[in-house]
Automatic annotation (TrEMBL):
Keywords: ATP-binding, Cell membrane, Membrane, Nucleotide-binding, Transport. This is ABC transporter domain-containing protein. It comes from Asanoa iriomotensis. The keyword Amino-acid biosynthesis does not apply. It holds the Pfam family ABC_tran.
């Protein structure tokens, strides 16, 4: 059974009175990774937010179905959503600093998630938080635990955020432009880390990026969105080598300046 499945999902903007996502479908099993690419405004983030039950006001899922771990999410209560988020499906977005409380030490923020979601004692939650920081290859995790967000670099903060996102052992992690703000080397390190987590824990990934190279590196399947429509969908290698839609060819062409072979090489490794 799929851990996460979307079937022809449509999202309606009640203020603009228009559909902003017009039919997105995919299914994810343990250890699989699906990528969503497309330019700004194509509906990538709203699709993720629908999966997490956090659509902005006036936006609704107006068609299709989303199920998490075999359960249709339509009609979940607020309390049921809270139980699902973090523990089954979790997410990391761009701009980690805005998701952390600047006045609290980062370790305490991870420990709090573990305590609330996993019911661990304060002491065990603390130990688990240090373990998570270590697993995300932050050097001297006990010291990082004691630091405030402003004391950490962007790459470190993103690792802290990933640690927070996986603290409750979710089955699916959504990474929405999670490496976009980072420089290329740090971005590559974080992508490696996600690939490793997927390998070692069977974490399923939804990777959202405007950058086809990021998605190619991590994913088995890619969805190409434009204006809320899925213009093309298929195995990453097929999309890279035999794009069928002109828009996909355009996205690939944007990479020619960096060397498309490199993108294809990365896809091959994934
Ligand atoms: N909170 C909001 N209020 C009003 N309109 C919104 C809101 N969030 C998204 N939209 C609109 O819905 C459409 C889809 O947005 P979405 O954020 O899903 O796109 P995206 O592909 O993730 O783009 P980006 O890469 O810029 O985040 C866009 O037209 C956007 O302007």
């Amino acid at each position: 059974m799929a851990l996460l499945s979307l079937h022809d999902v449509r999202i309606h903007d009640g203020v603009g009175d228009r559909d902003v996502v017009k039919g997105v479908s995919f299914a994810l099993e343990a250890g699989q990774a699906v990528g969503i690419v497309g330019e700004s405004g194509s509906g990538k983030t709203l699709t993720c937010r629908a999966v997490l039950g956090i659509l902005p006001p006036h936006f609704t899922v107006s068609g299709g179905a989303i199920s998490v771990d075999g359960r249709d999410v339509a009609g979940l209560t607020g309390r049921q959503w809270t139980a699902l988020r973090g523990a089954t499906v979790s997410a990391v977005f761009q701009d980690p600093a805005s998701y952390l409380n600047p006045s609290l030490k980062v370790g305490g923020q991870i420990a709090e998630v573990v305590r609330v979601k996993k019911g661990l004692s304060r002491r065990d939650a603390r130990r688990r938080a240090v373990e998570l920081l270590d697993a995300l290859r932050l050097r001297d995790p006990a010291q990082v635990y004691q630091q405030y967000p402003h004391e950490l670099s962007g790459g470190m903060l993103q690792r802290v955020l990933i640690a927070t996102a996986i603290a409750a052992d979710p089955q699916v992690l959504i990474a929405d432009e999670a490496t976009t703000a980072l420089d290329v080397t740090v971005q590559a390190e974080i992508l490696d880390l996600l690939a490793e987590l997927r390998e070692s824990t069977g974490l399923a990934l939804v990777v959202v990026s405007h950058d086809l190279a990021v998605v190619a590196q991590l994913c088995d399947e890619v969805l190409v969105l434009r204006d809320g429509e899925t213009v093309e969908q298929g195995p990453v290698e097929r999309i890279l080598y035999e794009p069928r839609h002109a828009y996909t060819r355009l996205l690939i062409a944007e990479h020619e300046q960096y060397g498309l072979d490199r993108v294809r090489e990365l896809a091959h490794v994934a």
